[in-house]
Amino acid sequence: MKWQNEFPGPLPRPGRDETARHLHAAQENAAAGNHAGGRVAIGDARGVATVVITGEHPAITPLTGSLPRTIAALALPSVASMLLMTVFATADAFWVGTRIGAGGLAAVSISLFWIWQVIALGEMVSVGLTAVAARRHGQGAPARAARSVGDGMVLALALGVVVAVAGLFLTQRLVATMQAPADVAALSVQYLGTYLLGSPLIFGFFAVDAAFRSSGDTRTPFLILAVSVTAALVLDPILILGFGPIPALGIRGAAVATIFTRAVAFGVGVRILARRGMISLNGFRGENLPAIVRVGLPTAATGIAFSLIYIFLTRITTQFGTPALAALGIGHRVESWAYMIGVGFGAAAAAIVGQNMGAQNPARASRAGWVTMGLATGVGVVAAVLEYVFAIPFASFFTDDPAVIQESALYLRIAAISTAFIGAELVLEGALGGAGATLPPMLASTSLTAIRVPLAAWAAPRYGTAGIWWTLSLTAMARGVVMVLIWRAGRWQHRSL
Predict the structure, then answer these.
(1) Alpha helices in 9-141 (DSSP H)
(2) What is the rounded CA–CA span in Å between residue 439 and residue 298?
C-alpha cells in the first residue's frame, strides 16, 4: 500500500469472506419480495459500497444487465465519500505547507504513519460492526441490528478513550522513533498529540458510518460528510492562522479541523440514528462484541502491519532531511485522488463478484472483475499522465520551498508509473475479497510491501531518494501484476462459503 488516507482504505480484509453470504441473502430477500414499499438495499459486508433499489426506478442488480452501469451505481457513493475526505486532506496540506512551511508538511507526514495505526483500530469496529449489523438487517431483525450498533458504538468510544489517554503519555516517544530533525519532531508532537486526543470522536464516526451503510443507506452519511467537510474547509485556515478573537493554533489547528470533521459527523449521525431507532443502548449487554471483534480484528492487524512497515521506510527517508519527508507527504496527497477512485471501483467489484458467486455464476463474476479493472485502469492511466506532466505544479500547490518542490516532482514522476497499475491492484483485491478468497491477496500484498524496507535500505545509499521512490513504485506495480495473476488463475471460483 503506497498511501492510506484518514478514511477506511482498501487494505486486504480477511473479514470480506462474509460478503458473498450477505449479498446472496439480500438477493434472495429481493427475489422473494421481502421488502417494504419496493425498496431493497444491497451492499457488501464492509458497507463500503451499497446500492439502493426502489420500485420507482429500473432495478440495478449485480446479477443481470449492463456491467458498466451496475459498477457505476455501486461505486459512485463510495467514491464520492472518499473524495470528500481527500478534498479536505488536500486543503489541509495546502494550508500547512504554504503557511507553516516544509517542516509542517514533514511533521504531518511522519504523524500519518502513527495515525494509520489508530485508523486500523477504528476499522476493526467499522468492518466488524458493518458485517454484524448488515447480517441482522438481512435477517429482517432491525431491533437486533440496533443493539449491535449500540454495542459497536460503546466499543468504538472505549477504544477511542484508551488511545487518547495513551497519546498523552506516548506521543513524544512515538515521534522520537522516527528520528526526524528537531524542528520537525516538535511540530509532529503538537499535531499527533492533538489528533490522538480526538480519537473517541474519530472512532465514534466509524461506528456511525458503519451503522448507516449496513442498513443500505449511503445517502445519509454522504450528506453528513458533505456538510461537515464544507464547514471544516472554512475552519481549517481560521484555526491555523487565527481570525478575530480566535487565536492562531498553527499546526495544532490543522489537527483540530480534522477532528472537527469527524465530530460533526459523529454528533449528527448519532442523533439521526436514535431518531430512526437504528441504535439501542438500553440494557447494554455487549452480546455482539465478540462477533464484531472477531470479524474486524484481522483488518486491524493488517493495517498495523502496513503502518509499521512505513515507519521503517520513513526512518530511512529521514537521512535525506526535511525536503524528502515533505515530498513523501505531498506524494501521498497527490496520489490519494487516484487511490480513492480505485477504492470505489474495488468496492463495486467486491459486491458484484460476491453476488454472482452466491448465484453460482462465476463466469459473470470473472467478467465483472476484468471490466471493473479496465474502467479503473483507464482512470489510473489518465492520473498517471497528469501526475508525470504536472508534477511541478502539483508540488507547488502545497509549498513554495524550491527544495521540496524539486524532491516532490521527482517522487511524483517516478510514482506515476505505478499509478497506472492502481486499478489492477485495488479492484482485483476487492473482487477476490468479494469471492471470499482473501488469503492469497493478503499474503502477496503484505509480502511485497514488507520487502520495501530492505530494498529501500539497499537503494538509498546508492541512488539517494530516487532509490527509495523507485522501490515504492516498482513494488506497487508488482502488487497490481500479482493480483492479475491470482485473478486469472481462477482458483477463487472454487471458494465455498
Answers:
(1) 19-31, 67-95, 102-138
(2) 11
The C-alpha atoms of residue 359 and residue 353 are separated, in whole angstroms, by 10
- What is the rounded distance in angstroms from the CA atom of residue 206 to the CA atom of residue 152? 10
For residues 114 and 255, is the Cβ–Cβ distance under 8 A? no
In the prediction, which pLDDT does 358 show? 61
Distance CA(372)–CA(261), nearest Å, equals 31
Q: What is the mean pLDDT of residues 465-474?
A: 92
Decide if 36 contacts 76 (C-beta within 8 A): no
The candidate with the shortest Cα–Cα distance to 259, out of 278, 291, 232, 219, is 232
Question: Residue 392 is placed in which grid cell?
Answer: 511541478
pTM, to two decimals: 0.65
The span from the CA of 17 to the CA of 354, in Å, is 9
The residues, any chain, with a CB within 8 Å of residue 233's CB and separated by 6 or more, are: 87, 88, 91
Which residues, including other chains, have CB under 8 Å from residue 137's CB and lie 6 or more apart? Answer: 41, 145, 214, 215, 216
Q: What is the mean pLDDT of residues 198-218?
A: 83
Integer Cα distance of 74 and 72 in angstroms: 5
What burial class does residue 56 get, using C-beta atoms within 10 Å of its C-beta: 0-12 exposed, 13-18 middle, 19+ buried?
exposed
Residue 490's Cβ-side half-sphere holds a number of Cα atoms within 13 Å equal to 6
Ramachandran assignment for 40, one of left (phi > 0), alpha (psi -120 to 50 degrees), beta (any other):
beta
pLDDT reported for residue 6: 41
Q: Which residues pair with 36 in a beta bridge?
A: 39
* Residue 242 and residue 250 in contact, taking contact as beta carbons nearer than 8 Å: no
The three-class DSSP label of residue 198 is: coil
Residue appearing with cell numbers 435477517: 139
